[in-house]
Amino acid sequence: IKIVPENVHLGELVRRVAGEQQAQLPELQLEIEEHGDLTGAWDPGRLAQVVSNLLGNAVKHGSRLEAIRIGLDGSQSATVRLAVSNAGTIPESSPQRLFEPFHGRETGSRPESGLGLGLYIVQQIVSAHGGSVESNSDQSERTTFVFELPRHAGQ
User: Fold this and answer.
1) Which residue, among 18, 17, 38, has the nearest Cα to 28 in the 3D structure?
2) 42 and 8 in contact (C-beta within 8 Å)?
3) Residue-by-residue DSSP string for the chain
4) Beta strand 39-42 with 6-9: parallel, antiparallel or unpaired?
5) Tens-digit pLDDT profile for residues 112-135
């Protein structure tokens, strides 16, 4: 995936994308928490796609009764982290398979569940920036997707 880095404030980008999601789903509960310096040289269009895919995934697979939490951490000098957390868990057998293309189209998936490319695209965009992405479910019955980016794409 080709990226075109420019100066970006990740907090501003996340608030914009979150606002777009809330305009489509006014009942959507979002909590955004920001810490540290959230600036870097990234491709804003591609990162907006990552945030949109992660939020869409949280809406689709999470509980509407609990808020989706977005945490931004720019307290490290070399990297910035973003976490999107929603109520619900991932089956233990599939956390890494979530990032494989067409995973969502396996047997038993709903026809309206999409092509199964959203998390694959997230992983590809984050990797193109030189970053990493992972998922986990915890004892509190929440699932979290975390990506970490170097402050300057490709480093």
Assistant:
1) 18
2) yes
3) -----EEEEHHHHHHHHHHHHHHH-TT--EEEEEEE--EEEE-HHHHHHHHHHHHHHHHHHS-TTS-EEEEEEE-SSSEEEEEEEEES---TT-TGGGGSTTGGGSTT--GGG--S-HHHHHHHHHHHTT-EEEEEE-TTSEEEEEEEEESBTT-
4) antiparallel
5) 444 456 788 899 999 999 999 988
48-3-50 Cα angle (round to 5): 25
| Residue listed under structure tokens 């970053």 | 131
What the block records as the tokens of 8 is: 């970006």
The token duo for 44 is: 């804003």
Burial 66-79 (b: 16+ CB within 10 A, else e): ebbbbbbbbeeeeb
Instruction: Identify any residues that bridge with 82 across adjacent strands, giving them in sequence order.
Output: 72, 147
- Of 13, 1, 17, the closest CA to residue 129 belongs to 1
Predicted local confidence at residue 106, as pLDDT: 43
pTM: 0.83
